[in-house]
Amino acid sequence: MSYVPIVRAENLALHFDQNKTRALDGINVDVGEGEFLAIVGPSGCGKSSLLNLIGLLDAPTAGEIYFRGQPYSAIRDPSLFRRKHIGFVFQSFHLIPTLSVLENVLVPTIAGPASISASRQDCMRSARSLLSRLGLDGKLDQFPGTMSGGERQRVAIARALINNPDLILADEPTGSLDSSNAAQVLDLLCEFKREKGLTVIMVTHDADVSARADRAIHVRDGRLDLREEYREFI
Ligand SMILES: Nc1ncnc2c1ncn2[C@@H]1O[C@H](COP(=O)(O)OP(=O)(O)O)[C@@H](O)[C@H]1O
Ligand SMILES: [Mg+2]
Q: Residue ranges of the domains in the chain?
């Protein structure tokens, strides 16, 4: 069988302000199933833009992304696609302050027009089990505002995993954490990646983080920097 990457970006461009700002300017990249890819580069080079396009949070000005060969432009319900296939982790957690830990984790399971069919009880069971794995047993009814950054990011990881995604997109997930919490969050993401065969695409400034990735791609001014570093798969 021929090789089909989980994500393929072809000639991807994202321009703003009538093409004056070229956040992305012709990106070509393949991401393999089960790969941990780090995206690195200076501030403003287009890392978040690339992740947002892969996460269907924005649409490209030009180019195409394929998910297991299926073009994004043919996806009819991006929100359902995201819920089924993609988990997101952000630098500033993006938890809902008025919802408890358990409720935050359950947010992606709330069915839209087309349900993804797990029963309420199954979702609840998965959420409790994930939170337990993440060391948050006693915190289910707590609110995010009362928790440390490391704890909040672990809640966000549980939320990202609740629908059993194929792909985790993480935008500087350790950027707001001290080094010990950063290491713990990275360990947990690597553990889940191995266990569940997840693909992880992570934007990072942190050399310790990119050193753990299978491969790092360098972005500069909206383009891939040719000094790519290839690493052995873990
Ligand atoms: N919604 C937007 N409108 C205008 N310019 C934007 C927008 N989003 C990003 N940009 C610009 O695109 C470039 C890349 O941004 P971004 O992808 O956030 O970079 P990074 O994540 O690498 O710091 C920057 O110059 C940024 O100012
Ligand atoms: Mg960014």
A: 34-56+78-218
